[in-house]
Amino acid sequence: MKLTYTSLIIILSLCLFNLNSYAQTQAEIEQMLNGSTQEDKTKSKKEKVEKTEKSKVDKSAEQVAEKTEEAEVVLEEVKEVLPADASDNLQEDASKNKKQKDSKEPLAVEVEQEETAKELPVVEEEKAASPTRSSSSGSFAKPYRTWSLGVFGGLTNPVTDIRYKDFFGAIDPINENQWNAGLRVTKMFDAAFGLQFQASYNVVQGAFDSLVIHKEDRNYLEAAGINKGVYFKNNVIASSMNIYWNISNTVFGVNRYIKSQQQGRPIKARKFSLYMYTGIGGTWFDPHVMFIEDKAPAEFAGVEFKQDRTFEVNIPMALGTKFKLGNVADLGIEYVFNYVFTDKLDGFAYDHPGRIKNDLYTNLNLSLEFKLGTKKKDKDHIEWVSPFTKIYEEIAKIDKMEKTLKQLTKDEDEDGVSDYFDKDTETPEGTVVDGSGRALDSDGDGIPDKADLEPFSDKGAEVDEFGQALDDDGDGVPNHKDLEANSPKGSFVNFQGIAIDGKVKGGESRGLSFPSIFFDTDQATIKREYEDELFMIAKDILRLEDLTFLLSGHCDERGSDEYNYELGMRRAEAVKSYLVDNYGIDANRLEVVSKGKSEIQSPRFHINRRVEVLIIEK
Predict the structure, then answer these.
(1) What confidence score (pLDDT) does residue 243 get?
(2) 40: which DSSP letter?
(3) Separation of first and last alpha carbons in the chain
(4) Do 180 and 314 fall within a single domain?
């Protein structure tokens, strides 16, 4: 066979391509071998991989050698038939390609090895940084179920030229209430919209005779040539792809939210849902028109019945409601208009004046929908999760926060306590209040300090409306301290309300004693806990208006005589000033003296730090 110049060039190119491909294969294998030098988890695994790759390299090298020899043989044969100059050029190109392959291939392998070595750790890091999502981890909420499978069936009625009634067909002379059954699959994209496929088998039947209810219909059909009772029967197979709309999840819900807020309860979960769907599909049917009297095929002069098997486009339009039986199934009822793009559904094509030309049939269906899902899905279906519920809940939280903020910034009685914390928002202006906004009552006797004439009554003391301790027997000693609650009127009693034997004679008082006032170390300040005692002392001094009293200051034994004398004097002066300033006692009736540490009466330091009140006998 004689080889042409072009054929030889093609053969040679294929040989060189083959040789180059095997060389690349060898390089890739070497790259895989060299590129796998990164640290492996175990040494044994690394050695196993190297042995496998080495065997592949050896085998590929043998194949490359064989192909190289074949290429060289072919090249020699080609030289013999080619012109001299073409042969030299071919030889030059081949040697050039070989040099380029020998010089560049190792470099390419090294570069690829470096890139592979750089990329692999990154992949490891990415894997480590992307933990596998576990359905049992609880890190993510389970998505709601979105698929459902339904079965349905019910009544079928014709809206055709041959019929007794438009809706809810007649039973006599031919039963126009027939049946249908079907299946549907629905995929919800969200809580409101989804895509639905359904298929159904429908028996459609209608009748016409001289007893048809609508006289206008009788006149038109009789004028068209049908002057005897006929009926049609049609078995319709229909399927469609529909857009499904859950109305309840997009329109309703505002009133339910408002009622729940008024009643102070959470929004009740819905049990009923309203929906619609419409779409486009096809119908297959073959109508038969027969006489009512003998069931024979109907024939009229000048009337042509269309009874061939045919396919037509139809549009279903449905409105329905469903009841939630639980997390597994829903029970529904729906009414469907099926608009068929033909006037042949009843086998009789008639352009009825003033009416739509195309035929219809309707379905009144009961449906049972099964919600599909696995353990990875939530038990509830997305149709029963209203997206507005969450919005309403957030709105309720915002309303509550707004009310709280208003209360925090509002202070109706201007007592300095916001209404949110104020337990008494009607305190009079100028009233001193505590942290809860109630009028301050320092002694806890129930009378606010502003109206309390005795703001520091003893704890538990019975007081009158002015906060003063009650003294039922009028002896000057309040009931809670009176050891003789029924002292005779005018009795002379001590600070405990006990009658004193003897009377004041010649300026001398017998049996009358006063409580001492005690001080802290190196202090001459009267402590609040002794205000009750001073009150009792003041009452006795005011009652014994003809007597004068001595206030004697004492100190403990620590410190120098000079210092303790001065401290004792300051303590006596402090008691005198308190009695004069708080109870209006005449200062001339009170004399002060300091005993310093000269009259130590107890080994306890605090007992000796005191002021004694004595009657000055004249």
Answers:
(1) 98
(2) P
(3) 167
(4) yes
User: Which residue, 616, 606, 610, is CA-closest to 594?
Assistant: 610
- Mind listing the pLDDT tens digit for each residue in 42-57? 555 556 656 665 665 5
Choice between 610 and 458, residue whose per-residue pLDDT is larger: 610
User: What is the reported pLDDT for 22?
Assistant: 44
Q: What is the largest CA-CA distance in the chain?
A: 170
Q: Tokens in use for 395?
A: 């709105």
* 172 in the same domain as 55: no
202-219 average pLDDT score: 82
* 146 vs 185: CA distance, rounded Å: 11
3-state secondary structure of 525: coil
Question: Encoding tokens for residue 524?
Answer: 């001459």
Nearest-CA neighbor of 414 among 435, 437, 434, 436? 437
Domain membership of residue 592 as a residue range? 501-616
In a domain, 397, yes or no: no
Burial 138-177 (b: 16+ CB within 10 A, else e): eeeeeebbbbbebebbbbbbbbbbbbbbeeebbeeebebe
Q: Which residues pair with 219 in a beta bridge?
A: none
Q: Is residue 451 part of a domain?
A: no
> Beta strand pairing status for 590-596 and 360-372?
unpaired
Q: Where are the alpha helices (DSSP H) in 130-147?
A: none
> Do residues 362 and 168 touch, judged by C-beta distance below 8 A?
no
Same domain, 85 and 212: no
